[in-house]
Amino acid sequence: MRIDVVSIFPEFLAPLSLSLIGKATETGLLDFAVHDLREHATDRHRTVDDTPTGGGAGMVMRPDVWGAALDSLLEGTQEPVAAPRVVLVVPTPSGDTFTQRVAEDLAQADHLIFACGRYEGIDSRVAAHYRETGVEVREMSIGDYVLNGGEVASIVMIEAIARLLPGVIGNPESLVEESHGAAGLLEYPVYTRPNDWQGKEVPEVLLSGHHAKIARWRRDQAFAKTIARRPDMIEAMPPENLNKADRALLQEAGWRRQSDGRYLRPTEPPTQG
Length: 273
Ligand code: SAM
Fold this sequence. Notes:
Elements: E1 2-7, H1 19-26, E2 31-36, E3 49-50, E4 60-61, H2 63-74, E5 86-97, H3 100-106, E6 111-115, H4 125-132, E7 136-141, H5 150-162, E8 196-197, E9 200-201, H6 211-229, H7 231-235, H8 244-252, E10 256-257, E11 263-264
Parallel strand pairs: 1-2, 1-6, 5-6, 5-7
Antiparallel strand pairs: 3-4, 8-9, 10-11
The chain binds S-adenosylmethionine.
S-adenosylmethionine binds at residues 91-94, 116-118, 120-121, 141-143, 145-150, 153.
């Protein structure tokens, strides 16, 4: 996979040269490059922004500067038919939420280009223009809060995507039971040595060496943790992911089975007063 990031602060992306993603770039699993947007400014001061049309606070990033930067990266990638899949990712707090499903989807692409906004963001015509010219454009938010720029959001997305690429994580099995994986659950609690720490002992079943019992215990723990912390994930769970014990647990806890087999959390009793 090729990943390009365009930013006015290329140094911001330095953490991606560390750890597993850095190693993947070094060994050629990943072709990763960062580009300075200011290289595409045309004036003496290398200006990339201007005042908002219509007035208001802050500055907006100019579409012509972004256009020059993105055209240089997209050149030759929009050939018809067996063209590689190129995705322009535009981080923005008003985008669709970036989730593990999106990471899995984007991990299938051949080339990702991240356009890091600053100030009040990038002129809206940029995303619209590339969409109209046939580029797959994904405006993505990493959560309901506002950062100063798209660099940290891009790091988050690139790390989540790149770790799914074959060969990046040493042991691919560690991806299987993770939170937000195919089972739609949070991960079970994990432990290591010492077995007794601060008077807290690791659950005995984990020391039993009985693989089937351990697997069952972990699945039950993952399910109980998800009910407690993320009932929305249980509500979204396809009925075929629920086993008999899960259904019994949900019923016992007052969850309501819907006609499509999904479950709804118990409604809160109305507050007095
Ligand atoms: N004026 C914009 C708004 O209210 O939607 C916020 C602009 S923000 C200060 C500057 C840049 O930070 C954005 O263009 C985007 O690249 C990035 N950014 C901020 N919050 C983000 C989030 N939650 N997810 C993804 N990118 C974000």
